[in-house]
Amino acid sequence: MMEEVLKAFKCQGPEERIPVLRLELDYELALLHEAMMENCWQKMQESKKRLVELRREMIMLEAL
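Structure (tokenized):
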């Protein structure tokens, strides 16, 4: 988990990564909504997993 933060920090500063991360969150939420409308359990689980990862990264970046 800490490796992800260091990797993100090295690629771009938190002030540059956070807006991109918000767009990624919005996109993943749209994918989750689509999966729910299709009633596709597998796609829903994949989106939820990705959302957890993005949320974790956002929390870490905001703490920096």
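Residues 8 and 17 are 7 Å apart (CA to CA). DSSP finds three helices and no strands in the chain.
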